[in-house]
Amino acid sequence: MKMKLVDQVVRSFRVAKVFRENTDKINSIDFSPSGETLISCSEDDQIVIYDCEKGTQVRTVNSKKYGVDLIHFTHAKNTAIHSSTKVDDTIRYLSLHDNKYIRYFPGHTKKVVSLCLSPVEDTFLSGSLDKTLRLWDLRSPNCQGLMHLSGRPVAAYDPEGLIFAAGVNSESIKLYDLRSFDKGPFVTFKLTQEKECDWTGLKFSRDGKTILISTNGSIIRLIDAFHGTPLQTFTGHLNNKGIPIEASFSPDSQFIFSGSTDGRVHVWNADTGYKVCVLNADHPGPVQCVQFNPKYMMLASACTNMAFWLPAMEDT
């Protein structure tokens, strides 16, 4: 019988396994669409791949020359894209089984701060501190589309891969149709500009109805994806280090998970905004990455260590 995610089940989550493969902060994680594998990258220049079913580490790949951040599985098996932290700001397409680069995507002139892959095809979006958003196809090193923006961008595809959202300057969200993005956004939502922090991430809920905005402060926002109306503001987690703490939806879009610089994981109800619980992971450092597995009843959180969480409750 399939367990349903309700408050009681969320509160019962416990750390089932801790991995201590990294010597520095894990800065990005991504589940494969099947939920069977998880990939992470760290400031120690290591990429680590985990088997989520077995709860084991599968492989470590080093990226000493270019560094690694914003890692994402692509649709092809055993491949990933990531941004660079050294040499230049090129995005790199990596074959994981033989640790060889398939293709480079040069163009950005400053640090890439947003990278997302289309859920339906081999295209991806990148946003940089050079105030541009670029659209790419994995099959070509040439940029397919370029948008000049007025500030730091964050981007996300909707679940159907038909539109994308660009958050600009921590104050507006522009929605573009992928088939005609060169015509500019078809709608712009103006929000109150963040005074204390920057927007560092956007995510659509899986039902496509809401957009989650994460920041490098102790605030997370949820807005209506159709009208831009503010729905919830989630607070109470700590971020006193100015790091881009990831906020994530559960697959059913009902719960919001976030890390915290105090090493704990905070959970809110997406509809009501109330705090469901704070999960104590004994993370020794700030938890920058938190994601729920898209297929299995499992949560991953990361500081320098990677923790896999499972519900302690048995479904009756």
TrEMBL record:
Alphabetized Pfam families for the sequence? WD40 (PF00400)
This chain's source organism reads Phaedon cochleariae (Mustard beetle)
InterPro entries (UniProt xref): Swd2/WDR82 (IPR037867), WD40/YVTN_repeat-like_dom_sf (IPR015943), WD40_PAC1 (IPR020472), WD40_repeat_CS (IPR019775), WD40_repeat_dom_sf (IPR036322), WD40_rpt (IPR001680)
Q: Which GO terms describe its molecular function?
A: chromatin binding
Similarity comment: family membership? Belongs to the WD repeat SWD2 family.
The chain's coiled-coil residues are none
Q: What biological-process GO terms show up in the record?
A: DNA-templated transcription termination; negative regulation of DNA-templated transcription, elongation; nuclear RNA surveillance
Identification of the protein by name: WD repeat-containing protein 82
> Main localization of the protein?
nucleus
